[in-house]
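wait is this the right file?? whatever heres the structure
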């Protein structure tokens, strides 16, 4: 049986469950040696293997990724026939090959996965980070606080079985707005709101309490919210580039262009991400959906007179009674209903994904029925143009 030293991985979050999975996986893997692959299984690997390594993915680009083995970062890649599904935070088993990049063998089972629908029309996910314990939703106190957007993010994070924590950064600029923003953030469905100032070092200990040794957190927020400045303060270094914000709306440029895993001194791990402009829901099979971010409304709905109550004008609606009594904000209900409609549209349009039958989706992204429909429309337009030119 193959043996891999994992003693250096504990500070990266390695635990007994992953150790047991790795041992089972190594029983099925052949001893290191020359690898020969035929044209059907992928490109040839004409090199002598130097053994296997396991580590945590700390950086991902289109062509390669970095695997941290607890001591060093090793360049790795996926073979040409493999779909690049790896993301920052994943645990990966790789095979060393000569002096070149290691080759991905298999990703270990994920504890959780934070994803959104990739921009564009194709029904494809964009995996942002895996194996997280907490996600910090960072907003600057110098920018407009978008409560509806915050509720959307909280729902997506809770649906991924991850704890969301709101971080209101730049408290040195907040002034009298600070108290109102804390109240607004608390209303978004999170139990915890932290107030920090990366420039003054305020509130950093509060963040470290949520990311102890062996735990992992990710930072999400708009460009200019101060995520990179916050990480620099926690790392006690200036290794991450930062930039100024516009005076008019406090928006910043994308100084962070890739997701990256960092180690915090005397604490756990942080994943820095580019600024988020949009967040389209991605609710595959097994995902509980948007209700996870609106537990207060769901609890009230259980006591409504009708099971299918829409919370509009039905008699005995406890949600409406809570709004009239001032215990629930009507805007929060509207946000919940909007996300429900968006989720229902996603499930109706992409039943293959929500039912766990992704294999029936056309490789190009669209299912075959929609692709054929598009081709028929294009053909009809060509024929119409042809008849128009002929004067018919």
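ok assuming it is, sequence goes like this
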């Amino acid at each position: 049986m193959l043996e891999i030293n994992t003693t250096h991985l504990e500070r990266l979050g390695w635990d007994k469950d992953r150790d047991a999975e790795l041992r089972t996986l190594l029983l099925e893997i052949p001893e290191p040696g020359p690898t020969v692959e035929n044209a059907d299984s992928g490109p040839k690997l004409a090199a002598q293997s130097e053994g296997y390594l396991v580590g945590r993915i700390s950086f991902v680009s289109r062509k390669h990724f970095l695997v941290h083995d607890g001591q060093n970062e090793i360049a790795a890649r996926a073979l040409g026939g493999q779909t690049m599904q790896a993301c920052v935070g994943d645990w990966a088993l790789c095979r060393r090959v000569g002096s070149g990049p290691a080759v991905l063998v298999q990703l270990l089972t994920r504890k959780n996965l934070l994803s959104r629908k990739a921009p564009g029309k194709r029904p494809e996910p964009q995996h942002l980070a895996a194996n997280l314990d907490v996600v910090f939703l960072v907003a600057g106190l110098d920018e407009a606080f978008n409560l509806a957007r915050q509720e959307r993010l909280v729902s997506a994070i809770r649906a991924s079985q991850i704890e969301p924590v709101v971080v209101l950064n730049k408290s040195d600029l907040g002034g009298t707005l600070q108290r109102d923003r804390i109240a607004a953030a608390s209303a978004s469905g999170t139990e915890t709101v932290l107030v920090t100032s990366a420039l003054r070092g305020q509130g950093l200990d509060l963040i470290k309490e949520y990311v102890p040794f062996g735990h992992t957190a990710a930072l999400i927020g708009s460009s200019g919210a101060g995520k990179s400045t916050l990480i620099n303060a926690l790392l006690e270094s200036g290794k991450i580039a930062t930039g100024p914000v516009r005076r008019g709306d406090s928006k910043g440029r994308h100084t962070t262009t890739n997701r990256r895993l960092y180690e915090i001194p005397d604490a756990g791990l942080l994943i820095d991400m580019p600024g988020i402009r949009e967040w389209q829901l991605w609710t595959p099979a097994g995902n509980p959906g948007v209700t996870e971010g609106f537990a207060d409304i769901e609890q009230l709905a259980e006591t409504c007179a009708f099971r299918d109550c829409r919370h509009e004008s039905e008699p005995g609606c406890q949600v409406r009674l809570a709004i009239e009594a001032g215990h629930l904000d009507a805007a929060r209900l509207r946000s919940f209903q909007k996300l429900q409609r968006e989720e229902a549209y996603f499930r109706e349009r992409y039943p293959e994904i929500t039912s766990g039958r992704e294999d029936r989706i056309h490789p190009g992204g669209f299912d075959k029925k929609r692709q054929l429909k598009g081709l028929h429309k294009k053909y009809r337009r060509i024929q119409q143009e042809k008849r128009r030119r002929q004067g018919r």
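The first strand starts at residue 49 and ends at 60. so i think its the right one actually
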